[in-house]
Design a protein that fits this description.
The complex is a heterodimer of chains A (about 210) and B (about 400). Chain A has about 210 residues and is α/β, with parallel strands linked by helices. Chain A has two domains: about 1-130, Response regulator (Rossmann fold, 3-Layer(aba) Sandwich), CATH 3.40.50.2300; about 140-215, Orthogonal Bundle (Arc Repressor Mutant, subunit A), CATH 1.10.10. Chain A has helices spanning about 10-20, 35-45, 60-75, 90-95, 115-125, 130-140, 140-145, 155-165, 170-175, 180-190, 200-214, and strands at about 1-5, 25-30, 50, 80-85, 100-105, 130. Chain A has a six-stranded parallel β-sheet with strand order 2-1-3-4-5-6, with helices on both faces. Chain B has twelve helices and five strands. In chain B, strands 1-2-3-5-4 form a five-stranded mixed β-sheet. Chain B is elongated and about 140 Å long. In chain B, helix 2 (about 20-35) packs antiparallel against helix 3, helix 4 (about 65-85) runs antiparallel to helix 5 (about 100-115) and helix 11 (about 305-325) packs antiparallel against helix 12. The chains are: A alpha/beta (about 210), B alpha+beta (about 400). Chains A and B meet through helix 1 of A and helix 7, helix 8, helix 9, helix 10 and strand 1 of B.
Chain lengths: ~210, ~400
């Protein structure tokens, strides 16, 4: 794999480069901020970019923003975002654009080297990687985890399309039903998954993530 | 705007307040000067009168340093004069003497600088002395004596009473000014303390944030790199299939590095949640999304409050949500964060069974303490049977 690393901590950047190189991968660029990441991706067109969420100058979420624009502007480039903290919202934002060739992992996962490289590989091949911690956080208590089981077969079908990032109209077209019916199914899904209307921006994504991880 | 004469008067008063002894000395000299016109012509009387007048002037000059002693001395001089008929006052006509003036001034001073019971006793002594003097010198043998005696009695009485009342009111006014100054000083002190507290709270919030950053950029990264290296070694050893003892050792080191990473992350999050750097909305959303009970969250805030306030609002929400999960059978929680007046209002309503109370040492008590550090308030409305509504009011800035 051809890999670009964006991580502002030199020790982590060098460690990753070393490990990935040892395993026979080609780290084409290792940079320390979001601007350099975009340039490196534009120049090298790597298979995958590994991006730290917190980078200069504000050390908040510029890595996440950069990863999202990279993912939009370079559809062939897989993007694996890793972070010291798991934020469900960051995951939902990341997966909202298009849940293919995207990963979101806790930084600790680098400790299990082979698993980590597997995750990079999946993202590079257009797959999806979501940290178990995100799922644990999003699902919260067990009583919410069982919620998927209460969906009807039709609702599960609608959810599976929703999880692929399709709009209500597209789902209606595929399933040969009216958009109104799709809307009703989607509302039922949200209701059964306990997603209240205030999360409206994220409801589709959270529902999709639950489905993907179920 | 004050006029020029007012300014001159203010300056003069200020100078007199600043130099009480000099002011009293000038008053004594003025008294002495007044007495010049009353010095008798006989040499022996002249010397005696001069001695008495100088003594009286001395009592006046000392009036504020020793009000009671000065008053007593002047009264004693007056009593001697009365008993032996010395001085110009011993003439058949009623004239105002230096002694009279000194006694009036000292009675005023007594009322102004000593407690009422002392100054009232002084007034009684003066009135008695005046009555005796009038009785002694009243020209009863003259025609039309009645009205003159009556008028004199009234004039002396009014003068002495006025002196006392003026002195007493001066004392009252001075006490009032002192209390006013104390109140102003207390208000200034309170404002100063508020400023200092706000700075301390902000500094402490900034310090916590820096500690979290330092952990993030330092220990956590190093530990993650270390765990990665240990992971590499572990996998290499496992692949080579020998050195089982070393592999076991490395595996346990690897595991403990990973556990420490988790602990360190929880610790850092407790110090300052990184998500707060992006604002209350994402921070509270994270709490809502990860809550075990479904949360309906509304955040409606124009602009951002200060970081210390954001941290308090965040930890309040986290604690209250955790409480709802732990202690109630609530199925839904509504969290609302909005602006109210110049501050923020956080309300948390759950549909649990109610009956929530602040118990000493409990989670709510800790929150209450935290909220109070910024003069915020925390109200709990939790009737038996529910619902429970907790309201937290916070300022925008510490």
């Amino acid at each position: 794999m051809r890999i670009v690393i964006a991580e502002d901590a030199a020790i982590m950047r060098d460690g990753l480069t070393q490990t990935l190189t040892r395993r026979g991968h080609d780290v084409v660029a290792a940079v320390g901020d979001a601007g350099a990441l975009r340039q490196a991706v534009a120049r090298h067109h790597p298979d995958v970019a590994i991006v730290d969420v917190r980078m200069p100058p504000t050390h908040t979420d510029e890595g996440l923003r950069a990863a999202m624009t990279v993912h939009q502007d370079f559809p062939g480039v897989g993007v694996l975002v890793f972070s010291q903290y798991i934020e469900a919202r960051a995951a939902t934002e990341l997966f909202a654009s298009a849940p293919a060739g995207v990963g979101y992992l806790l930084k600790d996962r680098v400790a299990d080297v082979s698993d980590f490289i597997d995750a990079i590989t999946r993202v590079a091949q257009g797959g999806t990687v979501l940290d178990p911690e995100v799922v644990r956080q999003l699902l919260g208590a067990a009583r919410r985890a069982d919620a998927l089981a209460t969906l009807t077969p039709r609702e599960r079908e609608v959810l599976s399309h929703l999880a692929q990032g399709r709009s209500n109209a597209a789902i209606a077209g595929t399933l040969f039903i009216s958009p109104k019916v799709v809307e009703k199914h989607v509302a039922n899904i949200f209701d059964k998954l306990g997603l209240t209307p205030s999360d409206s921006d994220n409801r589709r994504v959270i529902a999709a993530i639950r489905y993907l991880e179920s | 705007m004050t006029t020029y004469p007012e300014r001159v008067l203010q300056k003069a008063y200020a100078w007199m307040r600043g130099h009480p002894r000099v002011a009293d000395g000038i008053l004594a000299l003025a008294l002495l000067a007044c007495s010049a016109g009353q010095i008798p012509h006989r040499l022996i009387d002249m010397a005696g009168t001069l001695v008495v007048n100088v003594l009286l002037a001395t009592t006046v000059s000392l009036r504020r340093r020793a009000p009671v002693a000065a008053f007593a001395a002047a009264v004693a001089i007056a009593a001697v004069q009365l008993a032996y008929g010395l001085g110009p006052g011993a003439s058949p006509a009623f004239e105002l003497t230096v002694t009279d003036m000194a006694v009036v001034v000292l009675l005023y001073t007594l009322a102004a600088y000593r407690p009422r019971r002392i100054s009232l006793a002084g007034l009684a002594v003066c009135l008695t002395g005046a009555a005796v003097a009038i009785a002694r010198y009243a020209p009863l043998h003259e025609a039309h004596a009645g009205p003159i005696v009556l008028l004199t009695t009234a004039a002396v009485g009014v003068t002495l009473l006025s002196a006392w009342v003026l002195g007493d009111s001066a004392a009252y006014r001075r006490a009032y000014y002192v209390s006013l100054e104390e109140r102003v000083a207390a208000a200034e002190r309170a404002r100063d303390l508020e400023d200092k507290r706000a700075r301390a709270i902000d500094a402490s919030a900034a310090r916590l944030r820096r500690i979290e950053r330092d952990l993030h950029d330092g220990a956590q990264v190093r530990l993650a790199a270390l765990a990665m290296a240990l992971g590499e070694i572990k996998e290499d050893l496992a692949q080579a299939g020998r050195d089982a003892g070393t592999l076991k050792l490395i595996s346990s080191a690897h595991q403990s590095a990973k556990d420490t990473l988790t602990e360190l992350r929880d610790l850092a999050r407790g110090i300052h949640p990184a998500v707060l750097d992006r604002g209350l909305d994402p921070a509270l959303s994270m709490l809502a999304e990860t809550s075990a009970i479904p949360v309906a969250l509304t955040v409606d805030l124009p602009g951002r409050p200060s970081p210390a306030i954001e941290a308090i609002a965040y930890f309040c929400t986290a604690e209250l949500l955790a409480n709802a999960v732990k202690h109630t059978a609530a199925k839904h929680v509504a969290v609302r964060m909005r602006e109210q007046g110049s501050g923020l209002l956080l309300t948390l309503t759950d549909d649990g069974p109610g009956g929530a109370r602040v118990t000493p040492g409990g989670g709510l008590a800790g929150l209450l303490e935290r909220v109070r550090t910024v003069d915020g308030r925390l109200d709990i409305d939790s009737p038996p049977g529910g619902p429970t509504t907790v309201t937290v009011g916070l300022p925008r800035h510490a």
